[in-house]
Write a structure and sequence with these properties.
Belongs to the PNP/UDP phosphorylase family. It catalyses: uridine + phosphate = alpha-D-ribose 1-phosphate + uracil; a purine 2'-deoxy-D-ribonucleoside + phosphate = a purine nucleobase + 2-deoxy-alpha-D-ribose 1-phosphate; a purine D-ribonucleoside + phosphate = a purine nucleobase + alpha-D-ribose 1-phosphate. This protein has 7 helices and 9 strands. The protein is α/β, with parallel strands linked by helices. The chain has one domain: Nucleoside phosphorylase domain (Rossmann fold, 3-Layer(aba) Sandwich). The chain has a 5-stranded mixed beta barrel, surrounded by 4 helices. Bound molecules: 1-O-phosphono-alpha-D-ribofuranose and uracil (URA).
Length: about 240
């Protein structure tokens, strides 16, 4: 395969920075470019999955949507790492809290992801691989988030295959008891893909829903308001 790839229209590797921030929502990517980056240029809009490269405090960084769910997002993770030589992907996502103490708009840093996804079944036989982010990047993000004064939780996240999940009540209670912090839909695929290519990944979340209190943020807020998470990702993005 050569570039441009089937799903990213950048004609040269140079159009994309070494680190790419990736929300599921391409319009959140556009919001980040418009509000945080200087001199940004759009490098792709294939299938409406917008991607931009610009400068944050002089540091070159890209931001691009990943779409929702492991199958969609893994197309972009694979193409960015493998064909565009991207070194680091930082997911900047929304997530649904599964714990009483993880409140709306809190920051969560994933230390690992569990999933019902079968993407790794043929890779590891009967061993249940636990995909994890880059530890140095995680530690840097944790320290930075604390320094910025953000309410920050670190722990395992559930990368669900379904937003409208029919999860069994007992399974949900077990996940809660074993301290899974929140549910989202892509990190299991991101961490796995990063390890495949020997690259770096991190996932930062803003809590947009609570499965405990049944709160849910508006679509407008999910697209345009999770600025603590955006700033944190940009601050720790490697050059
Ligand atoms: O806000 P984003 O990054 O899209 O993340 C979460 O939101 C989407 C569902 O609404 C899924 O992609 C889930 O992982
Ligand atoms: O996957 C997700 C994302 C946000 N909120 C949820 O409840 N689930």
């Amino acid at each position: 395969m050569s570039i441009p790839t089937p799903h990213i229209s950048a004609k040269s590797k140079d159009e994309i920075a070494n680190t790419v921030l990736m929300p599921g929502d391409p319009l959140r990517a556009k919001y980040i470019a418009e509000n945080f980056l200087d001199d940004y240029k759009q490098f792709t809009n294939t299938r409406g999955m917008l991607g931009f490269t610009g400068f944050y405090k002089g540091k070159r960084v890209s931001v691009m949507g990943s779409g929702m769910g492991i199958p969609s997002s893994m197309i972009y993770f694979n193409e960015l790492y493998k064909f565009y030589d991207v070194e680091t992907i930082i997911r900047v996502g929304s997530a649904g809290s599964m714990q009483e103490n993880v409140k709306l708009h809190d920051i969560v840093l994933a230390t690992s992801a569990c999933s019902e996804s079968s993407i790794n079944d043929n890779l590891f036989g009967n061993i249940h691989f636990s995909p994890t982010p880059d530890f140095d990047l995680l530690l840097t993000a944790y320290n930075k988030s604390k320094e910025l004064g953000y309410i920050t939780h670190c722990g395992q996240v559930h990368s669900s295959d379904q937003f409208y999940s029919n999860i069994d009540e007992k399974v949900f209670k077990n996940l809660q008891q074993y301290d899974v912090l929140c549910v989202e839909m892509e990190s299991y695929g991101l961490f796995t893909t990063a390890r495949k290519y020997g690259k770096k990944a991190l996932a930062i979340f803003t809590i947009s829903d609570s499965l405990v209190s049944n709160e849910a943020d508006s679509a407008e807020n999910r697209q345009n308001s999770y600025t603590q998470m955006m700033e944190l990702a940009l601050e720790v993005a490697p050059k």
